[in-house]
């Protein structure tokens, strides 16, 4: 159009002996350039106004084979990736470096939309689809275009980030087909100030074990946070059924562990209140399954091992830099305190053989000197399974180690040579300062408002 405007303006100027200044204003150029155009028209005519690069491809243009390769890779190998993620995967795995704009234009030529396409883009494509439907009778082509239009998920409202790292961690779990053929639960904790994933763990269900593993990563890698913001799962808190009290009951082992560490728990039943972690799951569901499929992940053990390296790369790309953000994580507790705090409690009674049955096995209480301790039948104790798998028994204010009772003797007194009596092996017993004392836990339970009301 610009070439035609120049040609018609100069032609009219010469034929009518018009005003050069007016022609310069019309073409938005100088008088010297108008003189050049006049001389060129007199020498070459209309051909002078044809640009020299017309019909030539730019030097940086992609060849047809590369464009077709990008299209084939998206349709076959990376179909669930969004445009930005697909651009990163091409550079990482296929050694193809192109911009997101170029990829988007290549895919749009075949009416392929990103899973994250905006609503306006989908409306425009639908309008083009209707025009195409009027112009063609190819039902197969129209069905292909319609299948590429994906409904967008509802957006979550935003709110300001916290001022300090560790001020609030948003914690949640998401069920999804992350790897293999079965769905699993990904538990994560996201720092609200930086947007970094500070803990992640896969489990078959949303369980206390999954959240304990996430909190263990937070405590060992960062320290003690100020607050956890979660949903109202029974792992964190629950309300007793048929209770007239409106007070929430915090009778959970996870909440008691947080109380011992000085971590406040805030809960909400509205998903939009935890927008940071909800949007994080939206991003992870778009990227993580594809990354795990490329890496050949098929089991939960492989997935949790893969998370160790992937989360570091993910935070380096998406988390905010912490240079100007002050951290309020408290000093990291020692491993012994973490293992004893993140424990699972189970009430058990001593049987008539002075043993405790736990997970289909019988255990005998042992004191710190390695001598067995015998309680009367029916004595109530609390089995403490620490995070690292060690098992202890707490009766009142005393803590004992538990020795597994084998089904058969390991050696025979009658058929083996007599050996000198070995000294009892000393056993490690947690100090009385550890949090899982039976009396202190029972006092914690008795403070629950709805329990007092129900007793009254």
UniProtKB/TrEMBL annotation:
Signal peptide bounds: none
Biological process according to GO: DNA integration
MF GO annotations: nucleic acid binding
Annotated Integrase catalytic domain residues: 156-341
This protein's name: Transposase
């Amino acid at each position: 159009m610009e070439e035609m405007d120049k040609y018609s303006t100069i032609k009219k100027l010469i034929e009518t002996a018009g005003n050069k200044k007016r022609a310069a204003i019309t073409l938005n150029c100088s008088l010297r350039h108008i003189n050049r155009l006049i001389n060129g028209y007199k020498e070459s005519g209309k051909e002078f106004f044809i640009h020299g690069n017309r019909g030539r491809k730019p030097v940086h243009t992609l060849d047809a084979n590369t464009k077709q390769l990008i299209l084939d890779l998206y349709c076959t190998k990376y179909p669930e990736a969004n445009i930005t993620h697909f651009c990163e995967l091409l550079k990482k795995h296929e050694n193809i470096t192109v911009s997101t704009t170029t990829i988007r234009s290549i895919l749009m030529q075949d009416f392929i939309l990103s899973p994250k396409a905006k609503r306006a883009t989908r409306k425009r494509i639908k309008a083009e689809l209707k025009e195409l439907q009027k112009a063609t009778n190819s039902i197969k082509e129209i069905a292909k275009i319609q299948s590429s239009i994906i409904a967008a998920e509802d957006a979550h409202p935003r709110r300001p980030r916290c001022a300090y790292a560790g001020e609030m961690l948003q914690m949640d779990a998401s069920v999804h087909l992350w790897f293999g053929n079965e769905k699993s639960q990904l538990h994560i904790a996201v720092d609200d100030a930086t947007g970094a994933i500070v803990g992640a763990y896969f489990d078959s269900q949303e369980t206390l074990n999954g959240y304990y593993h996430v909190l263990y990563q937070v405590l060992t890698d960062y320290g003690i946070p100020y607050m956890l913001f979660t949903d109202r799962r029974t792992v964190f808190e629950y309300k007793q059924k048929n209770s007239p009290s409106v007070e929430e009951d915090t009778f959970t082992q996870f909440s008691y562990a947080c109380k011992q560490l000085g971590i406040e728990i805030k809960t909400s039943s509205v998903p939009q209140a935890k927008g940071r972690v909800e949007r994080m799951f939206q991003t992870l569901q778009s990227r993580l399954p594809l990354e795990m499929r490329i890496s050949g992940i098929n089991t939960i053990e492989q997935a949790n091992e893969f998370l160790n390296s992937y989360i570091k790369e993910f935070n380096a790309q998406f988390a905010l830099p912490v240079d100007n953000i002050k951290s309020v994580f408290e000093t990291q507790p020692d491993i012994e305190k973490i293992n004893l705090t993140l424990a699972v409690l189970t009430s058990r009674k001593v049987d008539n053989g002075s043993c405790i049955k736990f997970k289909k096995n019988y255990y005998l209480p042992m004191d710190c000197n390695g001598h067995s301790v015998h309680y009367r039948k029916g004595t109530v104790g609390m089995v403490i399974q620490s995070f690292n798998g060690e098992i202890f028994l707490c009766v009142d204010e005393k803590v004992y180690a538990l020795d597994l009772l084998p089904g058969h003797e390991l050696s025979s007194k009658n058929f083996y040579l007599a050996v000198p009596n070995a000294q009892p092996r000393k056993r490690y017993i947690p100090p009385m300062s550890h949090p899982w004392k039976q009396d202190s836990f029972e006092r914690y339970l008795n403070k629950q408002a709805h329990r007092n009301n129900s007793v009254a």
